[in-house]
Design goal:
The chain is mostly beta strands. The protein has one helix and twelve strands; from the N terminus they run ββββββββββββα. The strands form three sheets. A four-stranded antiparallel beta sheet has the order 1-2-3-4, with no helix packed on it. It is globular.
């Protein structure tokens, strides 16, 4: 990590490193805490860490979900992270209760969730993966309702050639 505010054109300064100890599959910023970033790992861990470069922060946390293939995550609010897994399940963890999965449900259209995009108003999110994408409606009470899915699928040849194929996208 490099503190861009202190970046010098002739050299890098104030560099720091966070070792997640596993393959990092997604990165995100927590919307309520400007200096807190998070990373998910293929091993099923959600790491939250302060990005104040050069400072040790004791608030670094690791949530061990107990599930492998954690490929994506998005913050639905300041304390809740929605996690997407390789088995097509979505699991919501609240960092105030880190050892307990609050909500879980399976996406019937996306077998491997490779990416999750949340709309700016936080009313919808999309799961992208193999072989399609799904749109979900969400509310403040943590209710998630299937709303729409990609009517066209990726060709069978594509998924046969690359079984880990995943698509991606974002709200404009």
């Amino acid at each position: 990590m490099t503190d861009i505010a202190r970046f010098k054109a002739d050299k890098l300064s104030e560099n720091g490193m966070y070792d997640a100890a596993n393959a990092v599959s997604s990165l995100s910023w927590n919307p309520g805490f400007a200096k807190v970033a998070s990373a998910s790992t293929d091993a099923g861990e959600l790491h939250m860490f302060a990005v104040r470069v050069g400072q040790f922060d004791r608030s670094n946390r690791v949530i061990r979900t107990g599930f492998k293939q954690l490929y994506s995550h998005v913050w639905t609010d300041n304390h809740s992270a929605l996690l997407g897994f390789g088995d097509g399940f979505l699991r919501l963890f609240d960092i105030r209760m880190p050892h307990e999965c609050v909500v879980w449900f399976q996406d019937q259209k996306v077998k491997r969730i490779g990416s999750i995009a949340l709309d700016p108003q936080r009313k919808f999110f999309v799961t992208f993966g193999n072989p399609k994408f799904s749109v979900w409606r969400c509310d403040a009470q943590r209710n998630f309702t299937f709303w729409f899915h990609d009517p066209n699928s990726v060709s069978k040849l594509q998924t046969d050639l690359d079984p880990w194929y995943k698509n991606d996208g974002a709200f404009l």
